[in-house]
Amino acid sequence: GEASEQNLVERAPVITIMGHVDHGKTSLLDYIRSAKVAAGEAGGITQHVGAYMVEKNGRNITFIDTPGHEAFTEMRSRGAKVTDIVIVVVAADDGVKPQTKEAVEHAKAAGVPIIIAVNKMDKESANPDLVKAQLAELGITPIDWGGEHEFVPVSAKTGMGIEDLLETILLQADVLELKADPSRDVKATVIESSLEKGRGPVATVVVQDGTMRVGDIVVAGIAFGKVKALLNDRGIAVKEALPGEPVVVLGLSEVPGAGETLINVKSDKIAREYAKKKAEYLRQKELSKSTKVSLD
Ligand code: GTP
Ligand code: NA
Ligand code: MG
Predict the structure, then answer these.
(1) Is 68 known to sit in a ligand binding site?
(2) Which residues line ligand 1 (CB under 6 A)?
(3) Is the pLDDT of residue 1 over 50?
(4) Residue 283: helix, strand or coil by DSSP?
(5) Reduced to 3 states, what is the DSSP secondary structure of residue 91?
(6) Which of these, 49, 124, 208, 271, has the minimum number of CB atoms within 10 Å of its CB?
(7) CA–CA separation, 56 vs 143, rounded Å?
(8) How far apart are CA 203 and CA 296, in angstroms?
(9) Is 289 annotated as a binding residue?
(10) Three-state secondary structure call for residue 132
C-alpha cells in the first residue's frame, strides 16, 4: 500500500517563540545561538520573524522568533500555524501581559503543546510563583502544581536554565514523534518574504516535507520560479534543505505572501499556470469585496 512506499525519517522540531514585548524572546535565542540579534534591533523591538536552526545532542531544532509588539498579531498567528511546539516566554519580573495571553491563545488555537520559559530569573524582582498563578488562571498549570505544563526558569542574561529548556524541547519533540519523508515532493511554508535590492524576491520558508533543492521549480501563491539559490540561517549558500529546516529561497518571480504554501512542480509551465490561477482567484476575491461594498 501507500504507507509502505513512504520513507519516513525523524525531522527537526519547529519551535515558535512567543510572548509579550521585551520579555526576552530574542535574547533567549541569542544565548542559544551565541549570537547578538537583540542588540542590533532598532529600538530593541523585533519587527519581523526570524528562523534559526540549532544543534543540541546531535539533533537539530528549528526556532522561529516572533515580535511581541501588539501590532504583529498576524505574524504570531502564522508562527503558531507552522510550529510543532510553542514556547511562551514570560518575564518573571513582569508576569502575564496582554501578548502573553495572546500567545497562549494562538498556541491553543493551533492545538500545539506549550512550554513556558520563565525568563529574567536573574533579576531581584523575579516572582516565578506569580507567573505560575497567572498562567494557571489561563488553564496553563505547571506540572508541580498537578497540571500538564513544563515551566522552565531561565535567564537569557546568565544562561541559567537554558540547557533545561533545550532538553525539555527535545523530550516534548520525542513525544510528538515528528517524521517526514525527504524523498517526497517539497511542501514548505513561507514565514517571511521581501523584495531585496540586488537579490529580488526573497522568501524564508520552513520545509515541512520533502527535500528542497537548488534548481527545483516551485510555486508559492502568485510567485513561481526555478530556485536559484538557497541560504541557511547564517546566509551561507546550501544545496538543499531537509524537512523541519528553515531556508531562504532566491529565484522567485514575485514576493510570495507570508503564510503561503510553497510546493515544487514538474515544469515551468505548470508553475506558471498555478501562479496565474492564484492571481486570478485573488482578483475575483478583490472584485467581489468591492462589489459588496458598493451594494451596501
Ligand atoms: P520583542 O521582540 O520586541 O517583543 O522583545 P523580546 O521579547 O525579543 O525581548 P529582547 O530579547 O529584545 O529583550 C528585551 C530586554 O530585556 C533587553 O534589554 C534584554 O537585554 C533584556 N533581557 C532579556 N532577557 C533577560 C534576562 O534574562 N535577564 C535580564 N536581566 N534582562 C533580560
Ligand atoms: Na525587545
Ligand atoms: Mg525580539
Answers:
(1) yes
(2) 19, 21-27, 38, 44-46, 67-69, 119-120, 122-123, 155-157
(3) no
(4) helix
(5) strand
(6) 124
(7) 24
(8) 38
(9) no
(10) helix
- Nearest ligand 1 atom, CA 44: 12
Mean pLDDT, residues 100-113: 96
Question: pLDDT digits over 114-137, tens only?
Answer: 999 999 999 999 999 999 999 999
Note the pLDDT tens digit of each residue in 178-221.
Answer: 999 999 999 999 999 999 999 999 999 999 999 999 999 999 99
Cell numbers 516566554: residue: 89
Q: Give the mutation target among 20, 22, 33, 118 for probing the ligand 1 site: most ligand atoms within 8 A of CB.
A: 22
Do residues 110 and 14 touch, judged by C-beta distance below 8 A?
no
pLDDT at residue 35 is higher than 90: no
In the chain, at which residue ranges do the beta strands (DSSP E only) sit? 9-10, 14-19, 50-56, 59-65, 85-91, 114-119, 151-153, 179-180, 187-196, 200-209, 212-213, 217-220, 223-226, 229-231, 237-238, 240-241, 246-250, 261-264
Please check the confidence at residue 106 and state whether its pLDDT lies above 50. yes
State the complex-level ipTM. Answer: 0.99
Average pLDDT estimate for 71-100: 94
Gap between the Cα atoms of 9 and 18, Å rounded: 28
- List Cβ neighbours of 56 (8 Å cut-off, separation of 6 or more): 166, 170
